[in-house]
């Protein structure tokens, strides 16, 4: 993990209402005095994390299996350039949490400072909204979007801007040149998530496999 979350940014689940109707963690009041039963708050420590949208029933089952410890929900946007809700059930100490250095960048621009001059004013993205492991057809899509930008000399209609931004958000496309888009490389995501560069370059993993492993990694 790249961070021990301070109490002011933690959101701890309660017996009811852990998730909203869409299955997403609700933002409850931070609980700076999270107390575990003495029989649980000691070694051996356990840690269960999930970055997918579990149903409330599933969270209840996980909690019951792990000594009825309530889930703790956080959003990665508080400590990285990625907006993603994560849920945990654990009996780790909650006092004196601290950042592990170096801290990951908080915005896409901090992670990729050399691309800043190419970003158009209407692309106001600061953080990633997901991690995409899709690679099939992406070069062709970037070429098509680039031609659209070149043909319009960078002056897109509102509808064209919406289409382009939708593709950028869902496929993690970033600006790498004038009127030129490209997908984030695994090395970029490793930096954004706080991992060492080439951390996923093991066992001959392909780009798709590296992106997929990062997609299911914790921060």
The parts where pLDDT drops under 50 for at least 5 residues are: 1-18, 27-33
Oligomer: single chain
Backbone structural class: alpha+beta
**Widest sheet: strand ordering:** 1-3-4-2
How many domains? The number is 2
Termini separation:
5 Å
What is the overall silhouette?
elongated
Strand content: 5-15%
Q: Count every beta strand, where a strand is a DSSP E run of 2 or more residues.
A: 6
Number of helices: 6
Radius of gyration: 20 Å
Proportion of residues in helical segments = 25-40%
> How can the largest sheet be summarized?
4 strands, antiparallel
> What string, H for helix and E for strand, traces the elements in order?
EEHEEHHHEEHH
Mean pLDDT: 83
Protein name: DNA cytosine-5-methyltransferase DRM
GO molecular function, one term: DNA binding
Subcellular location: Nucleus
InterPro entries: C5-Methyltransferase, SAM-dependent_MTases_sf, SAM_MeTfrase_DRM
Structure description:
This protein is of the alpha+beta class. It has two domains: 7-90, no CATH class; 108-215, no CATH class. Helices cover 27% and strands 11% of the residues. The protein has six helices and six strands, in the order ββαββαααββαα. The protein has helices at residues 56-65, 108-111, 138-151, 158-171, 186-193, 207-215, and strands at residues 11-12, 47-50, 72-75, 85-90, 173-177, 180-183. The chain has a four-stranded antiparallel beta sheet with strand order 1-3-4-2, with no helix packed on it. A two-stranded antiparallel ribbon has the order 5-6. Helix 5 (186-193) runs parallel beside helix 6. It is elongated and about 65 Å long. It comes from Fraxinus mandshurica. One of its GO terms (cellular component) is nucleus.
């Amino acid at each position: 993990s790249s961070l021990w979350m301070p109490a002011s940014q933690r959101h701890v689940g309660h017996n009811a209402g852990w998730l909203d109707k869409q299955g997403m963690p609700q933002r409850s009041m931070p609980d700076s005095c999270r107390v575990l039963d003495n029989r649980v708050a000691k070694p051996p420590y356990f840690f269960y994390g999930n970055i997918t949208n579990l149903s409330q029933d599933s969270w209840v089952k996980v909690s019951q299996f792990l000594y009825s410890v309530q889930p703790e929900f956080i959003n990665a946007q508080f400590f990285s350039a990625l907006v993603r809700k994560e849920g945990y059930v654990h009996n780790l100490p909650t006092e004196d949490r601290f950042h592990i250095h170096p801290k990951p960048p908080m915005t896409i621009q901090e992670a990729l400072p050399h691309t800043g001059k190419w970003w158009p004013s209407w692309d106001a993205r600061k953080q990633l909204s997901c991690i995409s492991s899709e690679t099939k057809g992406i070069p062709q899509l970037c070429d098509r979007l680039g031609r659209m930008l070149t043909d319009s000399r960078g002056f897109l209609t509102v509808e064209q801007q919406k289409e382009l931004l939708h593709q950028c958000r869902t496929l993690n496309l970033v600006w790498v040149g004038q009127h030129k888009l490209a997908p984030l490389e695994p090395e970029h995501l490793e930096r954004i998530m706080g991992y060492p560069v080439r951390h996923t370059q093991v066992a001959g993993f392909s780009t798709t496999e590296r992106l997929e492993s990062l997609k299911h990694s914790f921060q």
